[in-house]
């Protein structure tokens, strides 16, 4: 089925990619507004097997905000909320099975979402199979975001089906559709994913079923070839007949070694870049990536490096933990940048409100495009479970997608950006010519003042750990989240019993 590459890295003997397969169709989707609509069409069209692999699923979100009729249905006639939508998809197709795998740690991050998931699993259609994935070292995260329908169409990227993800590419200030379930506003949110068909979709299906087997011990059979195409007719195809590689991060576990294909592919791209490296990431805090970029910036006439990041993290604690690491990286990179070839920006709306960047994109020149779940941080390189898709040697496709992303950030049409880029001849020069001083655009990220908490968090790396080759794999027998939960429950019961005993003694 797969055509394994034999290229080896100098640092290790691991392949850069899990496999390379042909995609009959390949599409790039920007922001969750378009993704959720497309996803609904594919889920409705699925015939026998639908695999949903994600960090989290919030069954109570409206997938098409502010579009429900009196019965709670979206314009396609199916329930708008994710949970009822899944049930109705199953009710209308007696041959379909849906497998939903989410990270077990999401129960601790968002405990309120556990009950709807448990209800769906226990009392919903018997053909919905729900599992919490705990097959990873303690503290690690199952972070892949994959959807596969009948091995015919698959999605891989950074968008979760959960709260706060929905937004349009316009990122309108105070958009009334961009709200949380409690009615409070959500911040502007930028994200990306990809869609593939053909052998590339089957490869993602095999990976998803492998992940299900590791989490549940249950082997799922690959579906038979679907009868007819389920690719949505209005999903624009960006390329036909392209090779798509799968790159993973898998932490060592149950005596299996670390897989860090994503890190190796990023480092290869940095080493071989000639003109530019363009990165969109939720974080910018990876030691190995920083060292590789610093080396290129010290060169004479090396590539330009442009990074798009959020201005702030999602919480003050996370901001201290992750952005202190970012600030330290920036100090190194700016010191090495003797030819002014490095920029790091955050995007803003027309009202100058920061847009949160959740996309995970890595583009080398116009020769390689990486898109998936992996951030530029240590966890994504060697601790969490990640999956990226990679397209190489598709210059027009890659250049077009980079222009599409930057034109969104700068508030213009892609053709306008491409024209200025051709005129200026360099990425940074084009951005700076088009980037206005106010309104929609990109703003420079500056280092923040270090605090005692941020210094401790950065020094310990407690929020951003990783494994490296040679580290001893976890056997799965150590402390696990369930052990902490059980210990906490026992401690609580013991404390209550002690309180009762104390009262009876008075």
Low-confidence stretches: 1-14, 476-489
CATH topology of the largest domain: Endonuclease, Chain A
Radius of gyration: 23 Å
Number of helices: 14
How many E-type strands?
Answer: 20
Quick one: CATH class of the largest domain?
Answer: Alpha Beta
What composes the largest sheet?
A: 16 strands, mixed
In whole angstroms, the N-to-C terminal distance is 74 Å
The CATH architecture of the largest domain is 2-Layer Sandwich
Task: Please summarize what this structure is.
By secondary structure, the protein is an alpha/beta fold.
Model description:
The N terminus is likely disordered. By secondary structure, this protein is of the alpha/beta class. The protein is built from 14 helices and 20 strands. It is globular, with a radius of gyration of 23 Å. The longest helix has 25 residues.
List the helices and strands and how they pair.
Elements: E1 19-30, H1 32-45, E2 49-54, H2 82-91, E3 97-103, H3 106-109, H4 114-123, E4 128-133, E5 146-149, E6 153-157, E7 189-190, E8 192-198, H5 199-216, E9 239-250, E10 259-260, H6 261-272, E11 276-280, E12 284-285, H7 287-297, E13 304-308, H8 316-336, E14 342-348, E15 356-357, E16 361-364, E17 368-372, E18 376-377, H9 378-382, E19 386-392, H10 395-410, H11 414-424, H12 427-434, E20 441-444, H13 452-460, H14 481-505
Parallel strand pairs: 2-3, 3-4, 7-15, 11-13, 12-18, 13-14
Antiparallel strand pairs: 1-8, 1-9, 2-5, 5-6, 6-8, 9-10, 9-19, 11-16, 14-20, 16-17, 17-19
